[in-house]
């Protein structure tokens, strides 16, 4: 896998610009720890022996008592993922700056990273024709915007028919790159992202997101001398 290290927002921008070429569709994912493997929750060690599709069916039967479920099964799967169920979906975004935010916003002392993913032939789930369990290769899935966070985060998913298989570029049709950010460069990039409107308020467009953003901003007295609140 190709890996590159960035030390500033300007370097990050230069690398990300290269992803907009031809007919390629790139997806992006930010992780606070660059060593974390690319696995949907249903494939992680604590869930790898759990029949995830059976759990999803059980979730649907019970969730209807709490929320209005979409008719389409793919949209129900996206909703289950949103509410924390272990599914065979992995979160990505079409906006690389959103991925950058999730990479640098944590407090980990390890390197963070942004993954850049291209799937050959831009394989896309047809939510009207494809059946969950009937798709045999990794594919993109674009959810309907049933909550504001999907819009704010330009959310998309990859569907993993074998969720226990680590996503890497040894899989046929997968092109994967990794941009690494060291802990010492996180804070500066985080403030640059905020300057361009990528923050808790834009990514979590609700009262909770607003509260978290104001709490974050108010904790930086030195920065307030140089930046206008946004």
Rg over CA atoms = 18 Å
Helix-and-strand structural type: alpha+beta
End-to-end Cα distance:
37 Å
The residue-averaged pLDDT reads: 87
Helix content: 25-40%
What is the count of DSSP helices, taking H or I runs of 4+ residues? 9
Trace the largest sheet across and list its strands.
Answer: 1-7-4-2
Please state roughly what percent of the residues sit in beta strands, choosing from under 5%, 5-15%, 15-25%, 25-35%, 35-45% or over 45%.
15-25%
Quick one: overall form? Answer: globular
Instruction: Give me the strand/helix succession.
Output: EHEHHEHEEHEEHHHH
Count of discrete structural domains: 2
Give me the count of strands: 7
Low-confidence stretches are none
Q: How does the major sheet shape up?
A: 4 strands, mixed
Chart the SSEs and their pairings.
Blueprint: E1 2-6, H1 9-17, E2 26-31, H2 52-63, H3 73-82, E3 89-93, H4 96-104, E4 112-119, E5 139-141, H5 148-152, E6 155-159, E7 174-181, H6 183-195, H7 200-203, H8 207-218, H9 221-224
Parallel strand pairs: 1-7
Antiparallel strand pairs: 2-4, 3-6, 4-7, 5-6
Protein model, in words:
The structure is a single chain. By secondary structure, this protein is of the alpha+beta class. The radius of gyration is 18 Å and the shape is globular. The model has no long low-confidence stretch (mean pLDDT 87). The chain folds into two domains: 2-187, no CATH class; 199-230, no CATH class. The strands form two sheets. The protein has a four-stranded mixed β-sheet. A three-stranded antiparallel β-sheet has the order 3-6-5. The protein has helices at residues 9-17, 52-63, 73-82, 96-104, 148-152, 183-195, 200-203, 207-218, 221-224; strands spanning 2-6, 26-31, 89-93, 112-119, 139-141, 155-159, 174-181. It contains nine helices and seven strands; from the N terminus they run E-H-E-H-H-E-H-E-E-H-E-E-H-H-H-H.
């Amino acid at each position: 896998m190709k890996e590159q290290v960035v030390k500033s927002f300007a370097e990050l921008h230069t690398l990300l610009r290269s992803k907009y070429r031809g007919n390629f569709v790139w997806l992006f994912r930010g992780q606070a720890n660059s060593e974390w493997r690319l696995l949907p929750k249903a494939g992680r060690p604590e869930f790898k022996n759990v029949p995830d599709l059976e759990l999803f069916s059980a979730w649907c039967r019970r969730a209807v008592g709490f929320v209005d479920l979409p008719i389409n099964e793919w949209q129900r799967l996206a909703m289950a993922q949103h509410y924390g169920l272990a599914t065979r979906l992995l979160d990505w975004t079409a906006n690389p700056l959103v991925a950058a935010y999730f990479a640098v916003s944590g407090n980990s002392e390890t390197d963070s990273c942004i993954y850049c993913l291209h799937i050959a032939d831009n394989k896309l789930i047809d939510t009207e024709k494809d059946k969950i369990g009937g798709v045999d290769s990794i594919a993109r899935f674009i959810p309907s915007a049933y909550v504001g966070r999907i819009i704010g985060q330009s959310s998309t998913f990859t569907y993993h028919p074998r969720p226990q298989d680590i996503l890497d570029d040894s899989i046929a049709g997968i092109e994967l790159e990794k941009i690494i950010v060291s802990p010492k460069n996180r804070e500066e990039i985080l403030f640059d992202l905020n300057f361009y409107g990528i923050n808790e308020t834009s990514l979590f467009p609700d009262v909770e997101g607003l509260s978290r953003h104001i709490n974050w901003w108010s904790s930086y007295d030195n920065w307030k001398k140089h930046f206008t609140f946004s």
